Amino acid sequence: MATRPAGKAGSWYTGHVAALERQLNGFLALVPETINDSPLPIPGARVIIAPHAGYDYSGECAAWAYSCLDLSEAKRVFILGPSHTYYLEGCAVTTFAKYATPYGDLTVDQDTIQRVKEAGEMEDIPRAKDSDEHSLEMHLPYLYKRCKNAFASPEDFPTIVPILIGDNNKGEEKSVGRILLSYLKDPENAFIISSDFCHWGHHFRYMVYSAENDPTKLTTLGRFDAAPAGPPIHETIRLLDEAATDAVKSGKHDAFVDNLKQTRNTVCGRHPIGVAMAALELLAEEANDETKYRFNIISYKRSNLVQKPIESSVSYVSAYAVL
């Protein structure tokens, strides 16, 4: 039963415990003491959306989500991420027994993995691809640190359930959401939804622009075009991300999927978010209250405020949902 190595330690984030502790503490210190008039962590905030880029880029934004995450009753934490290392249809689960972090190892919940795998007819993640996948790994140091604050010893830490959510259509996302519904209902489960938002630039093959500040009226720029005479490019990026996060806040899974279909916004974790939204919407339907179980967007940042088409940017969002 192998341990997945912390392969991004030393590059995407520091592998030195003392330096990592200073960095994460620095990010967490920037989060206000209360969010939406609630002390932190927010009671019942068992589902978060958090980014997965290198900590120098997205670590500050991620701190907002992790500050909200309520682990007080957690026995296991589901981590839903997109696949960056290979094309995946459907979903896939880890075969590792543990995931390493610079702080220490986190244990995989083998029984839950097997039950979810069978229910969703999921594949196994090839171990080499699992080891290379940053959408899962980048959450683990933050999670371990939060667990240290919430539990007396590592023996009491919740187990983890790492799942890659592949290229599913709207109906398939709803099916996976239904599988996860029973786990959402159980207060012993928490969920981390891994996603960055707009990836803009030549490298990402996404260079849309709106001279009218209207995300429904987009043209495509060339890499070596001059800076547009109208609003700066980063304003278009902001509008695209606001349209996507408005759909997330709506609580309507269809609205989120339809928005991305219209704008083609390059939200890399759109399928993990879609699955989570589908499950939360089912929960709201069962409660006969569509205003419940919606995501609250609490932080939005970009790696660069793009002015010229030759530049690039990735956007980061943090959110939570109370169950």
From TrEMBL:
> Which Pfam family name is an example for this entry?
Memo
InterPro entries this protein is in?
Answer: MEMO1_fam
CDD domains hit by this protein: MEMO_like (cd07361)
Source superkingdom: Eukaryota
Q: Which PANTHER family match?
A: PROTEIN MEMO1
The text of the family note is: Belongs to the MEMO1 family.
Q: Which HAMAP family match?
A: MEMO1
Q: What name does this protein carry?
A: Protein MEMO1
- The organism of origin for this protein: Tolypocladium ophioglossoides (strain CBS 100239) (Snaketongue truffleclub)
